[in-house]
Structure formats: structure tokens, C-alpha cells
Amino acid sequence: MKHPKKPDVGSPPDSDPAGRQADGDADGAADDIAAADFSPEPDPADTDASGAGPIVADSDVRRELSAERDKYLRLAAESDNYRKRTTRERGELTSRAQADLTRHLIDALDDLGRFAHVDPATVDPVTLAQGVEMVERKFLKSLGTAGLQVINPVDQTFDPALHEAVTTEPALAPEDDHVVSRVFQVGYLFNGQLLRPARVVVKQWTG
């Protein structure tokens, strides 16, 4: 009587080669996915803006900063020099203008000195008054050449931009309303700039 052959315990059970191939492929794919998941991403800081290569070295950045700082210091020094130069030139221009005005007044000042030191016992009052009037005209002519204008608005319409009303007096007719009747003190303009308003009396129509 024949006994059935016992299976070989030590030998592994038969497996499908195709299945082994499929399992191997699946394991390899899983390894590839794991490797891809844990592979480091490139650091954007390691590339320049175009992505073409590494950023500028730190030493280059320091050189650029140093160059910009030197440029700023040069511009600041040039600006300070310009400010000092314009201030000096403005002062020199003012000094020249004052010297030129004084030069115009020298002749009138000489005449004033001569009349200021005359002997009243030897000069009659009429001559002295005429001399003072002559000096006044000379002063006004010299100052007028420099740009001075006298404001003497008798019989002119009151202008608050140029006149200062000290008081008022009744007007005899409606057309005289707000007309300057008298000037207590003349005013002055210098090259269009008001130095002093004329102090005046203004007529006022009350009806």
C-alpha cells in the first residue's frame, strides 16, 4: 500500500513570478515616492531673482553699501558747500547794494554838512531855508534813482493799502467822500514795497 507523498516542509510554497514582479515594482515605486517626499526643496534664498544662480556675495553687498554711503556723503558735502556759498554771495550782494545807495547820498550829505555848520550871524534865514530845501531835493533825487517813491496823496481817493487814516472830516459834496484832504506824514515805497503808509485826513460824506 502506497502512502501519499508528504509535502516538503522546508521548501517555500510556489508563488507566481508575475506576482513577484508586480510586488517588486510596487515596492520600488513606494521607495521613489518616499525619496521624493523627503528630498530637500531648493532654497529661494540660494538663487538670484532670475533663478539663474546664487545671490550676490555678502562682500559685494558691503561694497555696494559702502559706495552708496560715499555717494551720500559727497552729496551732503556739496549741498552744505552750496548753502554756504549762496549765503556768502547773498551777503556780498546786499553789501554792494548798500554801498551803491550810500554812494548816491554822499553829495547830498556834503551839502547838508555845509549848511549845518554855517554861522547864523552871517547867513540870513531865507538863504538858510533855501539851502536846506536844496539838500532835501538832492536827497530825494538820489533816493528816487535807487527806487524810492514818495506817497503824498492829497486830493486822491483813500487807498487802505497805501494810506493810514488818522482822522476824518466832513465832505462838502458827495463826490468828495473818501478823498484825502491833508497829509500829516508822507509815505514811502521802495521798488514797489511799502516802507511806510502815508498818514492822512480823509473826507467823509454824511449826507
Report on this structure.
By secondary structure, this protein is an alpha+beta fold. The protein folds into 2 domains: 58-146; 148-207, Roll (Nucleotide Exchange Factor Grpe, Chain A, domain 2), CATH 2.30.22.10. The protein contains 3 helices and 6 strands. The strands form 2 sheets. The chain has a 3-stranded antiparallel β-sheet with strand order 1-4-5. Helix 2 (58-116) packs antiparallel against helix 3 (125-146). The longest helix is centred in the middle third of the chain and has 59 residues, at 58-116. It is elongated, with a radius of gyration of 53 Å.
User: Rough shape?
Assistant: elongated
Low-confidence stretches: 1-24, 33-39, 45-50
| Biggest beta sheet attributes | 3 strands, antiparallel
State the share of residues found in helices, binned by percent: 40-55%
Please state roughly what percent of the residues sit in beta strands, choosing from under 5%, 5-15%, 15-25%, 25-35%, 35-45% or over 45%. 15-25%
Quaternary structure of the protein: single chain
The total domain count is 2
The strands making up the biggest β-sheet line up spatially as: 1-4-5
Beta strands, count: 6
Number of helices: 3
Average of the residue pLDDT scores:
80
Radius of gyration: 53 Å
Distance between the termini: 165 Å
Structural class: alpha+beta
